[in-house]
Design goal:
With 334 residues, the chain is an alpha/beta fold. The chain folds into two domains: 65 residues, Transferase, Pyrimidine Nucleoside Phosphorylase, Chain A, domain 3; 237 residues, Nucleoside phosphorylase/phosphoribosyltransferase catalytic domain (Pyrimidine Nucleoside Phosphorylase, Chain A, domain 2). The two termini are 27 Å apart.
């Protein structure tokens, strides 16, 4: 965790003056200014009045790549990273902050299928969301416990199970800013940050989704120009009701970002004529029962999800192999 935080109040007025001039008149902050501002927000050093002004100004203006990069620098410095586990695969990070309303939430199926192959899978997100079925609720129905500290995921990985960590346990300062949605009625930049942050000490594969075209452009630019290559790779796709699991009815395009290079690994597909098997009851209990049927071989794995799993396995294995080569070269030079 970054030890540079102080208890001194932070004046956000100079930044609000730049970003608060409306969609056409506002100017974006530099990466360093964005890091300083967001660090102060995380630390509770920005007054409530200024905090609300910053959130609404960014909501109207939209975040630039430098702003998101600076915010993420501060966000990842605000909590202790999870130790990188050994093994053949680099960790896969699955954010789950949306859940589902209409379609079954199959994020837990994706996580379990990867974990069964020996991939360390960390799912982080909210535990409850009124009107939605969350991944956490389905994990509870499946008997998969929550991880409350940074050592517990290792036990789940060793058992070839995914680890789910509530955002309150993983990054409590970010969780506090997420909760502001209930006060202000609108999302803020933190909702984007939790979907792109990388919680491990070493490289990992992040699964990232977007919901609006402007976020596709911004995130593509971030991963090609501003994301630190040493933090690992990312898969970017349009979300299935906001979740990063492939839509079993119509597979989304998946783009792989590695070292600033963008590669399309899955092309967008047309809707299938014959609907694949899916849970009849889409609540947490019914979804969990259907997932068990898939894992037991009684129901087929939706092909779009099976393909997503194959690409995750391939890139996760490559990422770990490349990391081992770099470490060997560094040790040889030293």
């Amino acid at each position: 965790m970054d030890s540079s935080y102080s208890s001194e109040k932070f004046s956000a007025a100079p930044f609000i003056k730049e970003i608060g001039r409306g969609k056409k008149g506002a100017r974006s902050m530099s990466r360093d200014d964005s890091r300083q501002l967001y660090a102060a927000m995380l630390d509770g050093r920005v007054s409530d009045l200024e905090l609300g002004a910053v959130i609404l100004a960014l909501r109207i203006k939209g975040e630039s790549v430098d702003e998101i990069a600076g915010f993420l620098d501060a966000a990842e410095a605000s909590f202790d990273p999870i130790p990188s586990p050994p093994g053949e695969y680099a960790p896969v990070v699955i954010p789950s902050y949306n859940g589902s309303r209409k379609l079954a939430n199959l994020t837990p199926l994706l996580a379990i299928l990867l974990a069964r192959q020996g991939v360390p899978v960390l799912v982080h997100g909210v535990t409850r969301d009124p009107g939605r079925v969350t991944t956490a609720e389905i994990f509870q129905e499946l008997g998969i416990p929550f991880s409350q500290d940074r050592q517990q995921p290792a036990d789940q990985f060793a058992s070839r199970l995914p680890a789910f960590m509530p955002i309150e346990s993983l990054a409590p300062r970010l969780a506090r800013l997420l909760e502001l949605r209930r006060v202000l009625g609108v999302r803020n930049s933190t909702h984007t940050l939790v979907k792109i942050m990388q919680p491990f000490a070493g490289p990992a594969l992040r699964l990232v989704s977007y919901t609006h075209p402007e976020y596709l452009a911004m995130l593509t630019s971030y991963f090609t120009t501003a994301a630190p290559a040493e933090r690992g790779d990312a898969f970017l796709m349009r979300g299935t009701e906001g979740e990063v699991v492939a839509n079993s009815r119509r597979a989304q395009q998946i783009e792989w970002f590695h070292g600033g290079v963008r590669t399309v690994v899955v092309e967008k597909q047309e809707p299938v004529d014959e609907l694949p098997s899916s849970p009849q009851d889409r609540d947490a209990s019914g979804t969990a029962q259907w997932i068990c049927s898939v894992l037991n071989g009684k129901e087929p794995i939706p092909e779009a999800i099976a393909e997503q799993v194959r690409h995750c396995l391939d890139v996760s294995r490559r990422l770990r192999a490349n990391t081992l080569v770099r470490h060997a070269n560094d040790n040889h030079r030293s």
